[in-house]
Amino acid sequence: MTRQFDPGQFNRGWWVLAAVLSAGVAIFSYRYLPRIGPLAPGVVQNLFARPWLDIHVVGAATALLLGPLQFLPRLRARRRTLHRWLGRTYVTGCLIGGVGGLMMAFGTTAGPIAGAGFGCLAVIWLVSTGQAWRLAMARRFDEHRAWMIRSFALTFAAVTLRLYLPIFPLLGLSFIDGYRADSWLAWVPNLIMAELYLRGMLTGRPRSGAGAPSRGAPT
Q1: Which of 15, 35, 52, 123 is deepest in the core (most CB within 10 A)?
Q2: Distance between CA atoms of residues 78 and 73, nearest Å
Q3: Domain coordinates of the chain in residue numbers?
Q4: Interatomic CA distance for residues 127 and 10, integer angstroms
Q5: For the stretch 186-206, what's the b/e string if a residue is b when 16 or more beta carbons lie within 10 angstroms of its beta carbon?
Q6: Are 141 and 216 in contact (CB under 8 A)?
Q7: 4 to 9, 17, 106, 198: CA distances (angstroms)
Q8: DSSP characters for 111-123?
Q9: How far is it, in rounded angstroms, from Cα 110 to Cα 105?
């Protein structure tokens, strides 16, 4: 007998993987604040590392750590106040991290391709997170959730960036060339996957609020 695809099981499996990877990268990234442990030379040598590296790390790592919790239906349904405060902290982290990331994009030592990639990431991250917050304030919750998925797909670039970096030397690319490619590959596929998910192309079940505006309903 053929086992039918279970979208709920699919979602739970991916959530667990994303949550574990996000927590690991976020906690490890906090080492940049006291400047302890292994530090990437290209990051600490960024022309605008002070003060923007610390600002970026505080915001982005916090958003990465908290982001997966916002997708827990039980938390959203049973702990609404906690959900809202975690959401506010997540949005604040994204906005702070996005501004810091944008400033660091101008100071990267990896060249204009990397600067453009990370700069575009920062701008789209700020816009998508701001849109998610605006829709929550307007109580258009279906659309809010869709934009939160887009926002976290960009937040998760911190994870995919690190997953892809070891692959480039295996393909015969130098670290710097791989890093330049990663400045785009770390987030563009994430955003495409988020859009495919929202439109039901991965699960066969489109998400409300992914396309045309809808009023939504509070949860």
Answers
A1: 52
A2: 8
A3: 7-198
A4: 28
A5: bbbebbeebbebbeeebbeee
A6: yes
A7: 11, 22, 49, 21
A8: -HHHHHHHHHHHH
A9: 10
The pLDDT tens digits of the residues spanning 136-165 come to 999 999 999 999 999 999 999 999 999 999
Q: Write the single-letter amino acid at 60.
A: A
Angle at 60 between CA 54 and CA 61, to 5 degrees: 85
The pLDDT tens digits for 10-65 are 477 888 999 999 999 999 999 999 999 899 988 999 999 999 999 999 999 999 99
Angstrom distance (rounded) from CA 202 to CA 198: 8
CB 42 within 8 A of CB 177: no
**Number of Cβ within a 10 Å radius of residue 11:** 16
Q: Which residues contact 150 (CB under 8 A, 6 or more apart)?
A: 128, 132, 191, 194, 195, 198
Q: Which residue has the tokens 């939160």?
A: 148
With vertex at residue 120, the alpha carbon angle to CA 115 and CA 126, rounded to the nearest 5 degrees, is 125
Q: What is the pTM of this model?
A: 0.87
DSSP 172: T
DSSP state, residue 108: -
What count of Cα atoms within 13 Å lies in the side-chain half-sphere of residue 65? 17
What is the phi-psi region of residue 126: left when phi exceeds 0, alpha when psi lies from -120 to 50, beta otherwise? alpha
Region at 37 (left for phi over 0; alpha for psi -120 to 50; beta for the rest): left
Task: Pull the structure tokens for residue 215.
Answer: 């009023």
